[in-house]
Design brief:
- By secondary structure, the protein is mostly helical.
- The protein is 82% helix and 0% strand.
- The chain contains six helices and no strands.
- The longest helix is centred in the last third of the chain and has 35 residues, at 107-141.
- It is globular and about 55 Å long.
- 35% of the residues are buried.
Length: 142
């Protein structure tokens, strides 16, 4: 039952941000699916005991690959899918907690959480970059 809740909420989050960022209506389902699949990969890897940072890298790589496929299939700019598809992976809750700890003068916990947020944010960027690089290498070999 928990996996169904994860699937549903990650789909709604990604599609909802697609609406917020004015993605075309015909792409909202694909935006939701890209975000949902990226989150589920992250969730399953984390559940198997993988550290959150590499799990985020792999999930971001999947999101990047799916975004490129969707962009080609639906003849839509890739940014439409990346922006909304990566939303479930963004560590917003941890960033909020880090700032809250700084505000209440708990600097030790704040620095720990802020470091985690920076690592996860970097993992998202690296995952998307790797996905793009691998795709460009495949295209050049063809």
């Amino acid at each position: 039952m928990m996996i169904v809740a994860q699937l549903l909420t990650s789909f709604i989050a990604a599609a909802g941000f697609g609406i917020l960022f004015n993605a075309p209506r015909k792409s909202l389902i694909q935006c939701g699916l890209v975000g949902m699949l990226g989150w589920i990969l992250y969730y399953l890897l984390a559940a198997k005991g993988m550290d959150p940072v590499p799990a985020t890298v792999f999930a971001a790589m999947l999101v990047g690959a799916l975004c490129q496929v969707c962009a080609k299939l639906f003849k839509t700019p890739i940014i439409i899918f990346i922006v909304s598809g990566i939303i479930p992976l963004v560590p917003g809750g941890s960033a909020y907690d880090a700032m809250r700890h700084f505000v209440v003068n708990d600097y030790y916990a704040g620095v720990q959480l802020a470091t985690k947020v920076m690592l996860l944010s970097g993992a998202i960027a690296i995952g998307i970059m790797f996905s793009e690089a691998i795709t460009q290498l495949i295209i050049k070999k063809r």
